Amino acid sequence: MQEGEEHSALEQDSALTPNPLRDGGQSTLKRVFSLSSNQQEVFRKQAGFFLVFGARGVFSLALLVFLMAGFAILFVKFTSPTSNELFTDLDRDGVWFFGLMFALYFALLIFVLVIWKKRAVESARNKARGAKRNRKHTGCMNNIIILQRLYSSTCGLNGRYYLLKLYFFEILEAFVQIHNLRTIYLCMLPVFVTSIFSAILIIDSMYRAHTSYRLLSNEGERMTRSRRNFIIFSDLVVDILFITVPLLLMYFGYNIWVTVKEAVQIVIVPAFSSIIKLRSLLLDTITRNSEKLAVELGLVKRASGKSIMMEQVKSVPRSVNIFVLVLSVIFSLGLFIVLLIQAFAGVGSCALYIEKNGTTNYFSTGCKVKVPFCKDTLQPNCDCAVINIDEHDMVELSDKMSTMTSLQSVKINNGPLAKLPPSLKELARIRRFDFENNRLKSFDIDVCSLSELLGIKLSFNQVKTVQQCVWKHPRVRELFLSSNVGLEIPSQKDSIYLPKLQYIHVGNNSVLIPPTMGAEQFPGLKYMYLNGNRFVDGKLPDSFQELISSLLKLGVGRCGLHNLGKQFKWDESSLKYLDARENKLFNVSSSLEKQIAKKKMENYFALNPVCNGEKTLSLNCKALCSPYCWSEYSGGNGYCDKTCNSEICDYDSGDCL
């Protein structure tokens, strides 16, 4: 063997799957003998899981499981509003993508775990034989096998044109990430985070340029399977980083609600790229480690041969290498220049962009995610993705807030705020308004134009009227309107239609609940709290019959009820929680009692006449710490429940301290 030839069993490419387009399909391996049944059995016993997969194979499997679990979590998250409502939103546009990706990754995992032993034995047998056995197939199966072999010999991991395919996907992913950086990351994440993403893209692009340069020079002749696989593996790590880190930062780091469309845009290309690379790396790892083990056991010998890597290198035209090299350098330099400009560009104080007047710059302290380069990548602006202000002295908000086109979440609580600018209707990206514990008397923002709005919180104000689109928004999922005494609820049947609403709280408003409120107005409703209001004739309206079949929690305490749906078919109810405290109930229907006992429903009937007579085992007549605290289980969970935030309730068992 001449000096410079590859000796390592891991780097020697002569043991690769023979290419039928080369040498007439003849193997470059020296045929020593075919493995006998006994030798195959010896190999089978020696070929343990960790020997066949090795450290890289096990790590690749771990990445596969990690991504599979991630797509499962995304699918559950986007289809399940809460842990008690699994897969209730399967009709959401685009959510099927995450189910599909979970299925594909799961199928790959099962496939690898099922065939690894068989593939290991076949790899050793093929090495001993010097070529793969060409099994005969007939009909459709024969055509499938032919196509599979054609793909493997051309675009597969050891195929002639694999490097061309790798180039194509790497460039495609680079442009996709630039698009995501411009349209999503720069509008939803702080500059220091997007700068790290840009630096990773620059390093990845420069490494691609370095690889192209090596292939143009004589160094390309020393390209080995190990070096090629390292390129694939490093690219895989970058893919996984861009699948997971942006979504984790947005959701857990900055409490930003990511839409299905945005999540799909972020993960779609790296997700498909990752599964292709994982399959190739896992199967190649099994083959190489099995061949190495066969050599170590003395079952076969190695003969030198022409490396398929040389064919892969020569199959990349020089013009393609030059194109990739130039494009990668331009890509890296351009991104580096943008990174420098963003690092040194100043945005100013941005005073009076949130407050209309005053001495405090609430943009500086209240904007939790500043995104100055969302509108213009090179020119900074006063823009913000998340505003979170607690305890303030603002009476009115600035009209300039409407210029923050990236704004997705506004939370301004506990202050004298009395007026909102109508121009907030121009916040096209807004997903959540939270103005609880202020002094608002109305909510006049036209939310019909806010297509991405998901939640409105106006509790503990003095709101008497809300804009009519609040009751007819097609996407709003949460509506908090409690503790606004006198807040008007539309009485016309066609004045309310909230098809996506999951949660509504209009408790403690001391108003008449319209008898027209039912499943027709709230087809997807799961949580409904009406405590502290009134019902016509002191009974639940007939329209509630269909509602209770889908509701999970219902609060009707302190509503003057003397009839809790005696006519209802409670055995068809899905309720897990029922609060009927402080009403005028002398009895409860037997079907409701049976349902409470059957489902072990959390229920509260304290201060009702029914609790003064003969006690039943199913009804809970024990009083809570206050009429407003909603559950005996609310405290001690680390979350301050405002309804239990009182001295008599020990400030929600200490959660509000």
N→C terminal distance: 78 Å
The low-confidence runs, each spanning 5 or more residues with pLDDT under 50, are 1-33
User: What is the helical fraction, as a range of percent?
Assistant: 40-55%
Strand order of the largest sheet: 1-2-3-4-6-8-9-11-13-14-15
Number of E strands: 15
Assembly type of the shown chains?
single chain
Indicate the mean pLDDT. Answer: 86
- Overall, the morphology is globular
Following the backbone from N to C, one meets helices and strands in this order, namely HHHHHHHHHHHEEEEEEEEEEEEHEEHEH
> Helices and strands: which structural class?
alpha/beta
Q: Please, how many helices?
A: 14
Tally of separate domains: 3
How much β-strand is present in the residues? Answer: 5-15%
**For the report, how would you describe the main beta sheet?**
11 strands, mixed
Task: Work out the radius of gyration.
Answer: 33 Å
